[in-house]
Amino acid sequence: MRQKFAYQPPVMDLIIFWGLIIAAYGLAISLQMETTNVSLAAIIVALLTSLVVLVQVIRYRGVVNRENLILRRVLPSNTLTIPTNNLTVTAISSHRLTLVGTPYGNLQIGTWRRASKVAELIKQQGETK
User: Fold this and answer.
1) Running DSSP on this structure, what letter comes out for residue 110?
2) Half-sphere exposure of residue 129, counting CA atoms within 13 Å on the CB side?
3) pTM to 2 decimal places
């Protein structure tokens, strides 16, 4: 049985990504403020920024099945597949998890749900082999 959840990257990546999004929206606002009419460039920048946000929020999904934890990223080639047999999941705050024992080193991810519920979900799927 597969379980899905939405996640966010580690804190530094998260700050950089959302900081760039805010800067792009600021650019759109600045472009609009510099013109007296509706600025097509400002609309294009705002729409492209919104598209990037939408793709990022939709694409960053975690899937837990009996064998693996799959962390999907924006580009399919960056998908991480982590075997759950030696995986230790720890909730470090209300929405942050640390994954220890992955082939990629220790990973920290943020979740939209409560971290304790996602950690329990991953542990349950790993135990039902």
Assistant:
1) E
2) 11
3) 0.74
